[in-house]
User: Fold this.
Amino acid sequence: MMFKPVVLWTDALVYLLIAALVAFGFYVSRREQLRERWGHVIRNRLAVASLVVLVAYVAVGLLDSVHFRPALPHTPGEQQTHYSSQILSLLDVVLAPLRTAEERTYSAPFAAYSYVKETVSGPGGKDIRKYPRLEYGGRQLSDPATQRIPDILRRTAWGVGEGLVLAVLLGAGVCAWRGWRGGTGFRQAAGEVLGGRTEVPWRVALLTAAAVLVLITVSVNLAPWYHIFGTDKVGEDVYYQTLKSIRTGLVIGTLTTLVMLPFAIMLGIMAGYFRGWVDDVIQYVYTTLNSIPGVLLIAAAVLMLQVYIANHPDLFDTNAQRADLRLLGLCMILGVTNWTGLCRLLRGEALKLAESDYVQAARAFGVGDFPIMVRHIVPNVMHIVLISVVLDFSGLVLAEAVLSYVGVGVDPTMNSWGNMINRARLEMARDPMVWWSLLAAFVFMVGLVLAANLFSDAVRDAFDPHLHER
Amino acid sequence: MFAYIVRRVLYAIPILIGVNLLTFVLFFVVNSPDDMARMHLGMRRVTPQAIELWKAQHGYDKPLLYNAKAQGLDRITQTIFFQKSASLFAFRFGRSDSGRDIGYDIRQRMWPSLAIAVPSFVIGLFVYVSFALLLTFFRRTYLDLSGVVLCVVLMSISALFYVIAGQYLVGKVLRLVPISGYDTGLHAFKFVALPVAIGVLGGLGAQTRWYRTLFLEEMGKDFVRTARAKGLPERLVMFRHVLKNGMVPILTGAVVILPLLFMGSLILESFFGIPGLGSYTIDAIHRQDFSIVRAMVFLGSVLYIIGLILTDISYTLVDPRIRLS
Assistant:
C-alpha cells in the first residue's frame, strides 16, 4: 500500500454532513412547496453568484477533508511498510509544489529575492550583506530585474486564456444540456442563456464561474513559480496556508450548528409542546447558559480541553489528530453557546403550533405525543432551523478569527485565518512591514463570508413567511 | 409591577447558582486544587506541606461539592463551592489567586471600559439610526441599494481587520492619535477616540441593516398609509410616525445590552492596551486565574439578568398595551 487512509473526527462529520445534504436534496425535490421555495432562491441573481463562489470554497474544503498517511520509502530487508507521521490530504497532493516550496524566511509576494538581508560569503572570502535569491520564488529567471515582470505578465495572460477557454467550454456544455432537455436545440438555448432570458439566471452563474475559473487557472500558472502571497516567517507559502484555512473556516461554520442542532430542535419543541415543568426546566437551562458571557464560557471550556489533551498524549498518533480533536471540541463549545437562540425561537413556534387545529385534531384521534411532534411540528418549524443555520454560518467563521486571537480558538499549529491574522499582528509592527499574510487572510475570508451572507439573505427572503405577507 | 420585579429578581437566584456551578465544574474537572497550588507556587519541587498551606490560605482545603465528613447543613456549606460562591452573592469578590483585591480591581478598571463602551454605544446608536432612516427614506432607489450593499460588505469583514487597519492608518500613517495606551481625565480623549470610531464602524453594517428592516416594517403599517393619505409630507411621516414607532423596538433592544457595557469589549481593549474589564478578563484567562474568571462570569450574568428585567420594564413604559403580570 502506498498510503494508509485516515479518517479524522471532523472528516467523518463532514462526510455525514454531505450525506445529509444529499438526503435533504432528495427530500426537497419530492415536495412541491419546498421545491417552489428553493426555486425562489435559485432565481435570485445574487444568490446564484454567491452559490457558485461557495461551491468553489466547498470543493477546496472537501479536497482537504480526505486524509491519508503516505508510506515511507522502503528500507531493504524489512517486510512491514511504515507510514509517515504526517497526515496529508488530497489538497496537499494537489498543492504539493506549494507545500514543499519552503524558503528560509519572509519574502514578499512575487518576489525573487528574500525580504531579509543575509550575510553571504562573497568572492575573495569577504562577507557581504545582501538580499539573497529565493530558492523557489522566480527560480526559472536568470536575471530577475529585467525578466520578472514580463514573466509574470506572460504567465498571467496564459492563465486568463486557459480560464476563459474552460469557461466557454462549461458554458457550451450548459447550453447543450439546456437545448437537449428543452428540445429547442443548441442555438436557441445559447441565445436564451446569453440574453439572460432563462428563468434560472444562467448567465450570472456562468459569468461568476468564469471569474472563479480564471482566478484558479491564473494561480495554477503562477503559484509553482512564484509565491503569490509571499512567504511567512519560517518560509512557508502564504497562499498554501490560506487555502488550507478554508477547511477550518467551513468546518467551524457548518459543524458547529450541526452538532447542536438535534439538541436545539428537540428541547425547543419539547418546551413548547409539553409546557409545564418541562418548559420550566428547559427555559432554566438556556437562560443560565445564555447569561454567561459567551467568550468566558468558551474560554473556560477550551482551557479545559487543552488540559485534557495535554494530559492524554497517548490518545493521538499524530499532531494533526490532536489539532483535529481540538477543532471538534471548539465546534461543540461554540455550539453549546449558540443553540440557545434557536431553541428559544423553536419554543415560541411550537407553543403556537401546539394550539393549531391540525395538532388538536391529531390529538383527538389519539396520536401519541412523539408522532405528533415528528409529523406535524418538526416539518413546520424546519424553515426556522434552515434560516438560522445559514444565518449563523458567516458569524461563526468570523468568530473563529476572534477566538484564535484571544488564544482560545483552534490549535496554534492548525492553518486558520484567525491564526494568520494573529501572527500578522506582530508582523504589522515590523519595519518594513509584512502585510501579505493579513491580505491573504482578508481576501479569502471576506470572499467566503460575503458569499455566505448574500446567500443566506436569499434563503431567508425565500423561507421567512413574515417577509412574504408583504 | 412591583411584585413582578420581585419575582424576577428571585428567579435570578437559581440561574446565578447554575452559572456558578457550571463554571465551577468546568474548571475543576481538569484542575484539582493541588494543581492550582502547584501552578501558583511556581516551583518544580513543591513540598506537600507548601501545597497544603497554599490551599488553606486560599480556601481550597475543603472538598469540592459535598463534604461527607461534616454534619447536617455543613455537608453543603463546608465546601469550596459554597464558600467561594456565597460571598459572590454579596458582591464580595475576594482576592485573586495572585493576591490582589478583585473588587478593587473591578472598580478601578470599570472606568476605562465605560469610557470606551458608553461613547461607542451612544454614537453608534445615533449613527446607525440616522443611516438606517436615510436608507429607508430613499428606499427602492440606487442610494438605498448601494447602502445595503455597503452594509453587507462591512458586516463581512472581521472586526480584527477594522482594528488592525485603523491602527495602521490613523495611528501609524497619519499619526493622529497614539496607537495604544490610556490616560485619565481629559487626556483620555486621544486614546479613546480611535477605539470608539472603530467600534462604531465595526457594528455599522449589521446594525444599520437591522434598523432599516425595522423601519421598513413600520413603513408598511396602516397608520403610515393613513398619514400619507391625509396629505402629510413624506418627511413628517418619517419623523413623526415611522421613527417614533420604530424607536420602540430599538430602545428596548438597546436596554438589554446597557448593563453589559460595564464588561467592556475584549478585542478593542486588548488591541488598544486599555486597562479595562475586557483586557482584565483576557489576562485572567491567559493566567488561568480562576477567582477572576469566576467573578467576571458572575458579574456578567448579573448584568445580563438586570438587562432582561430592564427590558421588560421598558416595554411597559413605552407601550401602554403591555402589562406585566
In short: The radius of gyration of chain B is 25 Å.
